[in-house]
Amino acid sequence: MTHTPTRSDFDQYMVPNYSPQKTIPVRGEGSRLWDQEGREYIDFAGGIAVNALGHCHPVLVNALKAQADKLWHLSNVYTNEPALELARTLVERTFADKVFLCSSGGEANEAALKLARRWAYNTHGEHKDKIISFRQSFHGRTFFTVSVGGQPKYAQGFGPVPGGIIHAEFNDLEAVRELMGDDTCAVMVEPMQGEGGILPADPEFLQGLRALCDEHDALLIFDEVQTGVGRSGTLFAYMQYGVTPDILSSAKSLGGGFPVGAMLTTDRIAPAMAIGTHGSTYGGNALASAVALAAVEHIDTPEVLEGVKRRHDLFREHLETINRKHGVFKEIRGMGLLIGAEMADEYEGRAKDILPLAIDEGLMALVAGPNVLRMAPSLVIPEADIAEGMARLERAIARLVASE
Ligand SMILES: *Cc1c(COP(=O)(O)O)cnc(C)c1O
């Protein structure tokens, strides 16, 4: 490489749908990253809840390297050992009986929605096509998933949206009860809204959705793309709610940084996805499956999951300490290592202003909407990195307060 890429190359060569920070990280290890200038950062962003074991975790690096020397890709004309092992592992550790593998969260949700529609069509007929989802929800960027998602701005300007989709207020069971009917095909919900602002569902809400779906023979779909694979403190968040979905989507942490997604379902529903109904060239890719298998086996252990709960408490304590000094947050909430701090009224809409200040101080963080500072670090982030990251965050927040 004779040319050293710079941030201005982004504006020159990439379509302008993103606006990345000025710094370009070139190397990562655990929860630390280094940029082109050798500046070091602590990573509370985790690639948006993807790098569940931090950067270059030896378990994942070894799984990738071992598989890289054996077999990368076959297509679905053949199956392969890593894909079969990943599917068996997910079935053995969850409610599911059957798995569809793909490469992203949006694809996992696309598969979930198509499966629900086809199942309803096969078992009840054409009229049963209504999908209920929630305002502020996020389910991906394919055209079906932005339409089901509850942020209209993501679907606007792309032509006619698919029909049969209704949005209700999150955590409002009565609103859903009024919308439910025998034409309801499925209810799709995030057990905790991620992009929408780190909003956990009330247990009674999810229990109520389960009961309504049973009553109307509709399918309950949990989008656990962001909450899944240890992020919430259990393998999947549904396990803490004690509410079992009919279909569940997973991605993000599932590959720990390698692109992979999965849709899980039961023997009652899976047959609707008969030969030829759906597919994906990369779905079940051997490299992706080998990495995901290693990630799930490593994360779904008492050591890692207990560690998530301990770190959750630490994050909360640090944020509360910062808030006692600076009074910038109204509420600190979340599950496991998906944590949101909602800005106080005086700082309404200013969450994103913290990000460049944090980068200046050597910390990567996230927002979830305009008003929530979001953190989704590695599930195994060392406690020393939490303390140092919080010291940097406090300096960034002190600068925000001083700039008032
Ligand atoms: C990120 C996310 C998606 C989309 O996943 P992609 O891999 O970007 O397609 C879907 N649902 C939720 C809840 C997410 O957080």
Walk me through the structure.
Its main location: cytoplasm. Pathway: Amino-acid biosynthesis; L-arginine biosynthesis; N(2)-acetyl-L-ornithine from L-glutamate: step 4/4. This is Acetylornithine aminotransferase. The modification N6-(pyridoxal phosphate)lysine is found at residue 252. Keywords: Amino-acid biosynthesis, Aminotransferase, Arginine biosynthesis, Cytoplasm, Pyridoxal phosphate, Transferase. With 404 residues, the chain is of the alpha/beta class. It folds into two domains: 7-56 and 302-402, Aspartate Aminotransferase, domain 1 (Alpha-Beta Complex); 70-299, Type I PLP-dependent aspartate aminotransferase-like (Major domain) (Aspartate Aminotransferase, domain 2, 3-Layer(aba) Sandwich), CATH 3.40.640. Helices cover 38% and strands 18% of the residues. It contains 13 helices and 17 strands. It has helices spanning 7-13, 46-49, 58-68, 81-93, 105-123, 143-148, 173-179, 203-215, 238-241, 286-299, 302-326, 351-361, 383-402, and strands at 25-29, 32-35, 40-43, 98-102, 130-134, 165-168, 184-189, 192-193, 199-200, 219-223, 247-250, 261-265, 329-335, 338-343, 363-364, 366-367, 372-375. The strands form four sheets. The chain has a seven-stranded mixed β-sheet with strand order 4-12-11-10-7-5-6, with helices on both faces. The chain has a four-stranded mixed β-sheet with strand order 1-2-3-15. Strand 1 and strand 2 (32-35) form a beta hairpin. Helix 3 (58-68) runs antiparallel to helix 10. The chain is globular and about 60 Å long. The mean pLDDT is 97. Pyridoxal-5'-phosphate is lined by residues 104-106, 109, 138-140, 190, 194-195, 223, 225-226, 251-252.
